[in-house]
């Protein structure tokens, strides 16, 4: 059959599909589809750039993906032995007795989530250490062997009941990696067992399942274990709305393979509403810091059919779904991004003193960038050792929810001719044409506006708009406020405050006929900015506004200055919270060591408190020796009070990199902080030893230290000594570099007094 004949048949088929679609549509939702939609479409060999773009606009989310996008703001809860050992990654051989939970308040978790506007929570039912938080039939390494409720406790059960009480959806994280099953002598992970047909769930005497469904899979021991535990989670704590997988592997053994296609069959059968993260359902955004792409297309290319893959590579590039990227694929697949980060430094709770907590400004900013950037926002809130969210997190969540409600609770647009765009009916939309690519909207009167929300009808018509602009009518003429790229599920446009009575949306570029589902205009009340506290090497402390919602320049104007004139900064150095009567910051001041707290005051309102604990002043420090250094990353950079510069070794070795420092005088130290570089990931010191000396020649070991998950979470790490050490000289020696790398790097070292 020749290509022209094939193309003719395709054209005839497409026309028939179009006629059927049009015939089936009612007046309320007239369709302009030119192809049959699907969540995955194949690219043919003879497809041109234009035909690939056309296909991309007919790739739509599944029902579960659409629901996940509409959930928008969801919670992650990391809880387990690491909460009590203060490690990011356990080793799998922790005694369950370390899980010294005495109280658990999952109602408090869900109340806080509800106040923040979150719709779903995902809990680490099993992290990499293999410790389980529910009463599993298939292991004793978990809560059943802990002191909590004499081994009768069940975190999953209590959380599921709280979720139902507060209307929060429940999701589960079940780590494929399992250090307990790796390290345990009789562990199942990588034990080289044969694959054979096995019944899931495996019956356990005295523990029958209410759900009598069974499955037959050809699997090995570990995959059977994993499927049995999935069955428990999906049938006894549901309904489950998300199953979360990641690709983290602290350690491998025996060439263990995961039978994900079998896992998916189980999930699809037992939790039909669940979206699967880390696979074809939802993808990782590519970082754990809450960073977002300016342009986030959710239609992405695959070389192989993603519906049949067993392994899924992380998609971390800045350009994900441009036409150039799409042309390199064989399949187009709808796969929304989930922006995941933690409200604390690290995923697990460590302490309330050194472990920083994001403030409401930061969380609200990420919310607007992620939810308003065609993504899902997943924020981790780790419970403390009391089984509750700490007061700091609760306050931030409450304030974030308040800002979301105050800003987006009401639509300032009224009386538009396209009323379908203003109603709450998700099944109405407006189709634009080449002759009408502009929409005007009236406000009830001259009104302050600095937010505009646009949503495409992706449920039926996919992602189409590639560039758009918003204008405001000011002083009798239209002024362009902002331009942006794609829209997708939702785009939140943020711009300097303007007083206007009319707004205009212009579509500048599109892949196919634009179809808009909803628009709204809003006003965000400017708050006092977050402050950044820094100290120079000479001991002078400066307090300046840090990153804010409006930190970019627009049309030559500095939005931050426009919105925040008249700021007053107050601060304390005695550990107390600053108030309106505290000392005013006028210029940099001398400060040796301790905690500086500061807040900005705008229009009489006291903003979020920022604080920073400074170590020993470095003006007399000298780096005695290092094992090696690169010319561009010399030793002096590790004590220059600048986290953007760093020392890096020239030599390569697995351990034994070192740096020794002379304080210039004796100090009684009780802790040190290691700040890793953030511009590279190949020199982070994961394990090491700290030594002290009175003369710089004879060294005595203080103690070992260990920091986990540095590559994914390159935040400063604090290590407190068991006892205070008086010394003039210190030495740090590496034992292990993260990611099995062989060079060492330090952005900054700090040591702290009592």
TrEMBL record:
Gene3D superfamilies: Galactose-binding domain-like (2.60.120.260), Glycosidases (3.20.20.80). GO terms for molecular function: alpha-L-fucosidase activity. Keywords: Glycosidase, Hydrolase, Signal. SMART domains: Alpha_L_fucos (SM00812). GO terms for biological process: fucose metabolic process; glycoside catabolic process. The keyword Hydrolase applies. The keyword Hydrolase applies. SUPFAM superfamilies: (Trans)glycosidases, Galactose-binding domain-like. It holds the Pfam family F5_F8_type_C. It comes from the Bacteria. Belongs to the glycosyl hydrolase 29 family. This is alpha-L-fucosidase. The lineage of its organism: Bacteria, Pseudomonadati, Bacteroidota, Flavobacteriia, Flavobacteriales.
């Amino acid at each position: 059959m020749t290509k022209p004949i094939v193309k003719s048949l395709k054209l005839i088929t497409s026309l028939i599909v179009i006629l059927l679609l049009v015939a089936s549509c009612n007046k309320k939702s007239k369709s302009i589809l030119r192809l049959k939609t699907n969540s995955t479409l194949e690219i043919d060999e003879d497809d041109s750039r234009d035909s690939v773009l056309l296909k991309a606009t007919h790739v739509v989310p599944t029902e579960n993906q659409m629901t996940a996008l509409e959930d928008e703001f969801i919670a992650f809860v990391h809880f387990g032995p690491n909460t009590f050992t203060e490690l990011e990654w356990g080793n799998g051989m922790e005694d369950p007795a370390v899980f010294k939970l005495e109280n658990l308040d999952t109602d408090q978790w869900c109340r806080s989530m509800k106040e923040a506007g979150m719709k779903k929570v995902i809990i680490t039912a099993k992290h990499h250490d293999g410790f389980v938080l529910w009463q599993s039939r298939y292991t004793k390494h978990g809560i059943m062997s802990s002191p909590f409720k004499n081994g009768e406790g069940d975190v999953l059960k209590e959380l599921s009941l709280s979720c139902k009480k507060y209307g929060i959806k429940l999701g589960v994280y079940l780590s494929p990696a399992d250090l307990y099953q790796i390290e345990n002598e009789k562990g199942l992970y990588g034990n080289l067992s044969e694959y054979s047909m096995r019944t899931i769930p495996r019956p356990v005497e005295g523990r029958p399942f209410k759900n009598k469904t069974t499955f037959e899979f050809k699997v090995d021991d570990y995959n059977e274990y994993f499927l049995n535990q999935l069955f428990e989670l999906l049938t006894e704590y549901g309904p489950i709305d998300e199953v979360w997988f990641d690709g983290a592997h602290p350690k491998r053994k025996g060439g263990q393979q995961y039978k994900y296609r079998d896992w998916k069959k189980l999930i699809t059968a037992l939790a039909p509403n669940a979206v699967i993260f880390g696979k074809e359902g939802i993808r990782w955004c590519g970082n754990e810091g809450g960073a977002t792409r300016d342009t986030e297309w959710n239609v992405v290319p695959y070389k192989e059919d993603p519906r049949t893959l067993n392994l899924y590579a992380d998609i971390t590039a800045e350009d994900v779904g441009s036409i150039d990227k799409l042309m390199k694929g064989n399949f187009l697949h709808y796969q929304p991004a989930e922006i995941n980060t933690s409200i604390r430094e690290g995923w697990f709770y460590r302490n309330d003193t050194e472990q920083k907590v994001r403030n409401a400004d930061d969380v609200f900013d990420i919310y607007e960038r992620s939810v308003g950037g065609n993504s899902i926002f997943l924020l981790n809130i780790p419970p403390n050792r009391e089984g509750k969210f700490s007061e700091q997190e609760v306050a931030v969540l409450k304030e974030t929810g308040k800002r979301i409600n105050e800003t987006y609770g009401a639509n300032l647009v009224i009386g538009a001719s396209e009323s379908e765009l203003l109603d709450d009916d998700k099944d109405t939309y407006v189709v634009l044409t080449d002759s009408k690519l502009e929409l005007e909207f009236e406000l009830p009167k001259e009104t302050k506006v600095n937010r505009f929300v646009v949503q495409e009808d992706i449920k039926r018509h996919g992602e189409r708009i590639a560039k758009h602009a918003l204008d405001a009518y000011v002083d009798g003429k239209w002024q362009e406020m902002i331009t942006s790229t794609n829209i997708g599920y939702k785009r939140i446009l943020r711009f300097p405050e303007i007083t206007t009575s009319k707004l205009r949306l212009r579509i500048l570029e599109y892949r196919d006929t634009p179809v808009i589902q909803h628009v709204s205009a809003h006003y965000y009340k400017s708050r006092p900015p977050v402050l950044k506290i820094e100290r120079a090497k000479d001991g002078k402390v400066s307090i300046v506004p840090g990153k804010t919602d409006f930190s970019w320049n627009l049309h030559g104007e500095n939005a931050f200055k426009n919105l925040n004139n008249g700021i007053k900064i107050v601060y304390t150095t005695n550990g107390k919270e600053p108030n309106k009567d505290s000392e005013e910051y006028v210029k940099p001041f001398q400060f040796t060591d301790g905690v500086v707290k500061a807040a900005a005051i705008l229009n009489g309102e006291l903003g979020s408190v920022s604080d920073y604990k400074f170590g020993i002043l470095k003006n007399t420090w000298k780096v005695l020796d290092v094992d090696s250094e690169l010319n561009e990353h010399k030793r002096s950079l590790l004590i220059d009070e600048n986290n953007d510069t760093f020392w890096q070794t020239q030599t390569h070795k697995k351990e034994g990199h070192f740096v020794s420092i002379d304080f210039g005088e004796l100090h009684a130290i009780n802790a040190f902080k290691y700040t890793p570089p953030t511009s590279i990931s190949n020199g982070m010191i994961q394990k090491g030893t700290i030594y002290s000396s009175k003369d710089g020649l004879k060294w005595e070991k203080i103690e070992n230290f260990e920091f986990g998950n540095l590559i994914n979470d390159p935040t400063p790490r604090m290590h407190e000594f068991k006892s205070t050490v008086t010394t003039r000289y210190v030495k740090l020696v590496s034992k292990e570099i993260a990611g099995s790398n062989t060079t060492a790097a330090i952005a900054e070292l700090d040591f702290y007094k009592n």
